[in-house]
Amino acid sequence: MSQAPAQTDDGWSGQVYSLIKDAGISLVTTVPDAGLTRLLNMCSDDEEVRVVTLSTEEEGVGMAYGAWLGGARALLCLQSSGTGNIINGLALPAFSQSPCLMLVTMRGQEGEGNPAQNPMGRAVRPVFEAMGVTCLEAKTKEDVATYFKQAVDMAFNDGNAVAVLIAQQVIGVKSFSK
Amino acid sequence: MEKLKRREVLARVLEERGDALVVSSLGTSTYDLFAVSPADENAYFWGAMGLAVPTGLGLALAQPERRVLIVAGDGDMMMGIGSLSVIAAQAPKNLGILVMDNEMFEETGSQSGLSAGRADIAQIALGSGFEKTMTVRNDNEVSRLTDFLMKEEGPVLAVAKIAPGADEPVFPSMDGRGLVTTFRSAVLGKS
Asked: E strands within chain B?
């Protein structure tokens, strides 16, 4: 019997969770993605971390700003398709030079089985960079924690919008075969 | 009966604001807040339409001991209307939302807004999971507004049906980083 993905050690979620704790992040906002399941479950099980389900990803940009104003630290977890929902919202961290830390699981890359995922998947980096978001793309499991730690420092020490993009090859490709 | 005047409503709500933290949505809500209750503990929006409300939620969760008031125009509220269900789910006891509803996009030429028609923001809040809402249309009702927004256990949402006609705009700083530094210094004692 195969285990559900959430129960399998994926080689990065545990490390990112530890870094969330080390960074003192108390708020994790999300429109979930399958690839984020393990990490979100670890956060949900932690009483010191509040996981907030959003109706649209851009609310997470606002909540990160509000949290920072109130002295707390937030992380927005989203799928690549959701990055398109937050573009004008990114004016907020850019205008205020305040932290906006994001963890993005990529779709629309090599092996994608759903062509509707491809346009936004391809556009994440150019669109984010046009809005002043630094993108760090993890192409291996090992990269994820390395880049996440860098992103934490860039976001909270210097007031930047930073996204760690987790490549589809790290997450695994969703099957659409019948 | 004469319609409510926006700055008079806001001035009464914030008459004794104590240590409350206030977030205002872009445009006239920001000008009104700066005009009637300028304070370091104000988070003025200049852009990012629709995000004043989730910002207020993030702030309310980070500062649970302090009252947080969001002042949002009806257009801003409609753009971020899904945030109401997010707030209802989190249920911050210290959060109040005042929707300044002139039923139009006055800032851009007074085009008709959705709340001028069939959309009722207080009803949407109830359907999103809010237990306490009110809609005020005249001066007598405004007397209940202050306690409701600033003291009643949250989350609460009030819609003030206000007359069109913005007052002379007065502008807070447009230095985004400066606004954050000022706010954080006032609230946290650090930048």
From this structure: 21-24, 42-44, 68-73, 95-101, 104-105, 111-112, 132-136, 156-161
Contact flag B51-A92 (C-beta cutoff 8 Å): yes
Q: Could you tell me if B119 lies within 8 Å of chain A, comparing CB atoms?
A: no
Print the domain residue range for A113: 5-171
Could you read off the pLDDT of A133-156 as tens digits, one per residue? Answer: 999 999 999 999 999 999 999 999
> Would you give the DSSP letter of residue B189?
S
Mean pLDDT of chain B: 95
Task: Check CB contact of B180 with chain A, cutoff 8 Å.
Answer: yes
Tell me the Cα Rg of chain A: 15
In this predicted structure, what is the pLDDT of residue A2?
A: 41
Which of B57, B67, B174 is the best substitution to test chain A (most A C-beta atoms within 10 A)? Answer: B57
| Predicted-complex ipTM score | 0.96
Question: Given this model, what pLDDT does residue A1 score?
Answer: 39
Question: Which CATH entry fits the domain spanning B6-188: 3.40.1000.10, 3.20.20.140, 3.40.50.970, 3.40.50.850?
Answer: 3.40.50.970
